[in-house]
Specification:
Length: 35
C-alpha cells in the first residue's frame, strides 16, 4: 500500500493498508484453490 506522507487522514491510510492486505489474501486463497 502507498501511504500519504503529508496526509491528513490516518484512517484513510489504514483503510488502504487493510484493503491491500485483503486483496493479497484473496489472491493467495484463490491460488491455493487453483482459481
Amino acid at each position: 500500500a502507498i501511504f500519504k506522507t503529508q496526509g491528513d487522514s490516518v484512517d484513510e491510510n489504514l483503510r488502504l493498508y487493510a484493503r491491500g492486505l485483503l486483496e493479497e489474501l484473496d489472491e493467495i486463497h484463490a491460488g491455493l484453490h487453483g482459481n
